[in-house]
Specification:
Blueprint: H1 2-42, H2 46-61, E1 63-72, E2 77-83, E3 92-94, H3 98-106, E4 110-112, H4 124-129, E5 136-142, E6 148-157, H5 164-228, H6 234-259, H7 261-283, H8 291-305, E7 312-316, H9 317-331, E8 337-343, E9 348-352, H10 353-369, E10 375-383, E11 387-394, H11 401-404, H12 436-447, E12 450-456, H13 481-485, E13 489-497
Parallel strand pairs: 8-10
Antiparallel strand pairs: 1-2, 1-6, 2-3, 4-5, 5-6, 7-9, 10-11, 11-13, 12-13
C-alpha cells in the first residue's frame, strides 16, 4: 500500500513538472511573440523588420525557414518579401498556386506534414531555391479591414510534425506581420510622396532656370557681337534664344491648362445647383423659369468661368491622327523611329481640336522621348458601338511600379534629377516638365473622356538609375529589335464615350 502511494506521488510529481515545463515553454514562446510586437512598433524598414520577424518565427515555432508572401493585385501574383536564406523578392507565383495560394484564396490556415504527397504543394519553389520542404504550416495575413493581403508560412519543423498548438502561435505572429506590413506601406507611401514633392521642386526649378540661363548667356553674346558688328555670328545665339523661349512659353501654357481646371469646377458646381433647384421646383408644381431661361443662365455662367474659347467640332479622327503623326515624325529630325498607324476610317469625334491636339500630341511626344532609336511606336484609333479609343504604345524602357503610382501627379518625371537632360524636344530622355500627363488628366475630367495606362519596366533596367543607351543596337542585353520590343514599354489609352456629353 505504501509502495502504491509512493508511485502515485511520484507520478503526480512528474505530471506537475511536465505541466510546469509546458507552462514555462508557453510563457517563453509568448514572450518571444511579445518581443516581435515590440520590434514591429519600433521598426518600419522592411528589410530589417522582416528579417527579424522571420528569425523570431523560426525560433518560436522551431522551424528551418519562414516566408512572407504578399499579394500583387496588379499582376495577380504572390511574391515573397523575405525568405530566410534566399534573396528578397525572389519567389513570384500565381496567387492560386501552392500552399500559399490555397491559403490566400480560401483565407484559411493550412497544416501539411507531408508536403510532397499533398497536391496543393508547389514543388517548383524548392527547385528554384534548392531547399527541400518536408512540412508546412501556412496562415493568411489579414489587414485591419479583414482583407487577405498574403500569407505567412513556416517550413520544416525541427522536432517533427506541426501540431494544433503551432496554429495559435503562428496566427499570433501573423497579426503582428499584417500590422507591420500596413505600417511599412504607409511609411513607404509617405516617403514616395516626399520624393515626388522634391522632384516637383527640383524639376520646376530646373525647367525654369535652365532656359533663362541660356537666354541670358545668348543675349550677352548678342550684345558683344553687336558691339563688334559681326552680325553673322548671331544666328546660332538667336536660334537658342528662340528655342528656349518656346520652352518657357510651352511650360506656361501647360500650367495655365492645369490651373484652369479649378474655375471650371466652380462653375460646374453653380450650374448643378441651379439645375437641381429648377428640377425641384418643377417636381413640386411650382412655377419657375422655363428651360430656355435656365439655358441662358447656364451659358452665362460658362462664359464667366471659362478661361478659354471652347470650339467643339466634328473631327475626322483618322485624318487628324495622320496629320499629327506626320508633324511629329518631321519634328523628330534625325531620330530613327518607326510610327505604326492603325486607324478606323471615317470615324468622327466631337471635340475641341486644340484640346485634342494638346492631349494626343503630348502623349505621342512622351512616347517618342521614352523610346530608343531604332524603336517603334504604335498609334491606333478604334471605334465600337459604345466608345472611340485612341492608344499610344511605345516599346521603350517602361515605368517603374513606384512611378506608376504618381504618373498623373503633375510635374513628375521618371528620371532622377541628376540624370535629367533637358534635351531638344523629341530626343531620347529629352527631359520636359512632366506636365503633359497632368494636363491630359485635367482635360479628361473637363471634357468627359478617360485616360488610362499600362506599363512594364524593362527587365534589364529595373531602376530609374539604370541607363538605357538610347539605341537598340547599342544595348548589351538583347540581340535584336524584337528583344527590345518584348522587354518593356507603355500604353496610354484615351476613351471617348459616344453617347456621353462632353463637359466644357
Amino acid at each position: 500500500m505504501a509502495a502504491l502511494t509512493r508511485e502515485y506521488i511520484e507520478e503526480r510529481s512528474i505530471g506537475r513538472r511536465n505541466e510546469d515545463r509546458l507552462v514555462r515553454d508557453r510563457i517563453r514562446k509568448y514572450d518571444q511573440i511579445f518581443k516581435v510586437g515590440q520590434i514591429i512598433t519600433s521598426e518600419v524598414n522592411l528589410d530589417t523588420l522582416f528579417e527579424v520577424i522571420m528569425t523570431e518565427t523560426n525560433q518560436i515555432l522551431g522551424t528551418r525557414r519562414s516566408t512572407v508572401f504578399l499579394h500583387d493585385k496588379r499582376t495577380g501574383e504572390l511574391w515573397s518579401l523575405v525568405a530566410t536564406g534566399m534573396k528578397r523578392n525572389e519567389i513570384r507565383i500565381p496567387d492560386s498556386y501552392g500552399v500559399a495560394g490555397w491559403v490566400f484564396t480560401h483565407i484559411k490556415p493550412l497544416m501539411i506534414n507531408d508536403a510532397y504527397n499533398d497536391p496543393r504543394f508547389y514543388s517548383e519553389i524548392d527547385k528554384k531555391s534548392g531547399f527541400r520542404t518536408r512540412n508546412i504550416f501556412c496562415v493568411p495575413l489579414l489587414n485591419r479591414q479583414g482583407e487577405c493581403i498574403g500569407a505567412l508560412q513556416a517550413l520544416n519543423k525541427v522536432t517533427g510534425r506541426f501540431t494544433e498548438r503551432d496554429r495559435d502561435l503562428l496566427t499570433s505572429i501573423s497579426c503582428y506581420v499584417a500590422i507591420a506590413l500596413e505600417n511599412a506601406k504607409l511609411y513607404e507611401e509617405l516617403k514616395a510622396l516626399d520624393r515626388a514633392r522634391e522632384r516637383v521642386i527640383n524639376h520646376l526649378s530646373h525647367e525654369l532656370k535652365t532656359p533663362i540661363a541660356i537666354i541670358s548667356a545668348a543675349l550677352g553674346r548678342v550684345s558683344r557681337e553687336v558691339r563688334k558688328e559681326n552680325v553673322s555670328k548671331l544666328e546660332r545665339a538667336v536660334e537658342r534664344c528662340d528655342r528656349n523661349l518656346h520652352r518657357l512659353m510651352d511650360l506656361q501654357e501647360k500650367i495655365d491648362d492645369i490651373l484652369n481646371r479649378k474655375p471650371v469646377e466652380e462653375g460646374e458646381k453653380i450650374i448643378r445647383i441651379i439645375q437641381d433647384a429648377a428640377d425641384f421646383a418643377e417636381e413640386a408644381g411650382e412655377e419657375g423659369m422655363d428651360r430656355e431661361s435656365i439655358g441662358r443662365i447656364v451659358r452665362r455662367i460658362y462664359s464667366l468661368f471659362n478661361t478659354g474659347d471652347i470650339r467643339m467640332e466634328e473631327i475626322l479622327l483618322d485624318r487628324f491622327l495622320h496629320d499629327l503623326c506626320d508633324e511629329i515624325q518631321s519634328a523628330m529630325g534625325a531620330r530613327e523611329m518607326e510610327i505604326v498607324r492603325d486607324f478606323d476610317e471615317g470615324t468622327h469625334l466631337r471635340m475641341d481640336r486644340r484640346v485634342l491636339t494638346k492631349v494626343c500630341g503630348g502623349l505621342l511626344r512622351n512616347a517618342v522621348e521614352n523610346t530608343p532609336d531604332e524603336g517603334r511606336i504604335s498609334v491606333t484609333a478604334k471605334s465600337d458601338t459604345e466608345d472611340i479609343c485612341i492608344t499610344f504604345q511605345d516599346f521603350g524602357v517602361g515605368i517603374t511600379p513606384e512611378n506608376q503610382e504618381m504618373i498623373f501627379g503633375g510635374f513628375f518625371h521618371t528620371q532622377n534629377t541628376e540624370a535629367y537632360s533637358s534635351g531638344r524636344p523629341y530626343g531620347f530622355n529629352a527631359g520636359g516638365s512632366g506636365a503633359d500627363l497632368l494636363r491630359a488628366k485635367c482635360f479628361s475630367e473637363r471634357f468627359g473622356f478617360t485616360i488610362s495606362f499600362e506599363s512594364s519596366r524593362c527587365q534589364f533596367l529595373p531602376e530609374d538609375s539604370d541607363p538605357c543607351p538610347g539605341r537598340i543596337s547599342a544595348c548589351t542585353f538583347i540581340k535584336d529589335r524584337a528583344g527590345c520590343f518584348s522587354s518593356g514599354g507603355s500604353v496610354f489609352r484615351l476613351t471617348f464615350p459616344k453617347n456621353g456629353s462632353s463637359v466644357y
